[in-house]
Amino acid sequence: MEVNCTGRKAVVTAGASGIGKVIAETLYLNGADVCICDIDKGHLKSFAELRPDIKGFYADVSCSSDVKHFLSKSKLEMDGLDILINNAGIAGPTKKVEDISDQEWQGTIAVDVDGQFYCVRSAVPMMRDMGRGTIVNISSTAGRLAFPLRLPYATAKRAVVGFTDTLAMELGPSGINVNAVLPGYVSNKRARDVIENKAKASGRSEDEIQALLLNNISMRTSIEEQEVADLVLYLCSYQGRHISGQAISIDANLETYSGLDKL
Predict the structure, then answer these.
(1) Within the chain, how many helices (H) and strands (E) appear?
(2) Which long-range CB contacts under 8 A does 63-69 form with residues at least 24 apart?
(3) Number of domains within the chain
(4) What does the pLDDT look like over 29-47, one tens digit per residue?
(5) Is 217 a domain residue?
(6) What is the CATH number of the domain that holds 136?
(7) CA distance linking residue 119 with residue 66, whole number of Å
(8) Measured distance CA(215)–CA(92) in Å, rounded
(9) Three-class secondary structure of residue 239 per DSSP
(10) How far apart are alpha carbons 83 and 232 in whole angstroms?
(11) What is the pTM of this model?
């Protein structure tokens, strides 16, 4: 069975590095036209050198005007838009609830929730013009499990699941399928940064934090960025066109964040 996105026109937020970069490359290598945005100009420059056929734009997804500009330019670049990958997100603070500042709370929600809303609001009319569409919202296992000391992030990622459920019902009659993907412990720089912050906050070593995390995963393993990208590819393909309203975990069965909650 050949799974591809030939003829599709995709945008990926925060697509110049990490999971977003791998998703963008995977969609492109499997037939899609792709545009990305990112807030890091250095990452955009490096990505442009690596993938000159994928157009990159600067955009802060927490700024609605940036999002509108990015999607309008992408539509012009590709002559349409029918795939949106809402990948942009930040980890937020690792702190007790009483130590979280207004700025930390609001900043996390602005990127992780508001950003997805701004992208969908601009993209849906474009998808209706195409007569089809696929939206994949990147959530997290923190969207289904309690994640102590990560309250803003866990709240945002659970909001993404509810956001996805409602969009799937609202947009289904227009031929637009909407799903959330919930990665677990991904072996990348962002996860290493979270482990480092958790270690600093708890007084444990990074090796101890990683061991605790792996012990909560049935398969005792992290996952790779490419695995997340492959799942996104399937959801965007012809074979995945009737999968909608789902929150799909890819996490080697991460069962709990228990043991990571004590400072």
Answers:
(1) 9, 7
(2) 63/118, 64/118, 66/37, 67/115, 67/118, 67/119, 67/122, 68/118, 68/122
(3) 1
(4) 999 999 999 999 999 999 9
(5) no
(6) 3.40.50.720
(7) 10
(8) 24
(9) helix
(10) 11
(11) 0.93
Contacts of 218 (CB under 8 A, 6+ apart): 252, 253, 254, 255
If we measure between CA atoms, which residue out of 191, 163, 203 comes closest to residue 179? 163
Residue 202 in this model has a pLDDT that exceeds 90: no
Range of the structural domain that residue 90 is part of: 9-185+224-250
3-state secondary structure of 11: strand
Please tell me the predicted confidence (pLDDT) of residue 262.
56
SS3 sequence of 25-86: HHHHHCCCEEEEEECCHHHHHHHHHHCCCCEEEECCCCCHHHHHHHHHHHHHHHCCCCEEEE
Q: Residue 162 falls within a domain, yes or no?
A: yes
Q: Comparing C-alpha atoms, which of 47, 142, 130 is closest to residue 90?
A: 142
Return the closest-CA partner of residue 55 out of 10, 116, 5, 87: 10
Q: Is 185 known to be catalytic?
A: no
Q: Report the pLDDT value the prediction gives residue 203, as an integer from 0 to 100.
A: 79
pLDDT value of residue 100: 98
Section 52-58 average pLDDT: 97
Q: Say yes or no to pLDDT of 112 above 90.
A: yes
Q: Is 68 part of any domain?
A: yes
Q: For residues 168-179, give the mean pLDDT.
A: 98
Q: What confidence category does residue 261 fall into, taking pLDDT thresholds of 50, 70 and 90?
A: low
Which of 153, 185, 238, 257 is an active site residue? Answer: 153
d(CA 84, CA 211): 35
What's the pLDDT at 189?
77
Average pLDDT estimate for 116-133? 98
- Residue of 143, 167, 144, 170 whose CA lies nearest to 157: 143
Residue type at position 70: F
Domain contains 62: yes
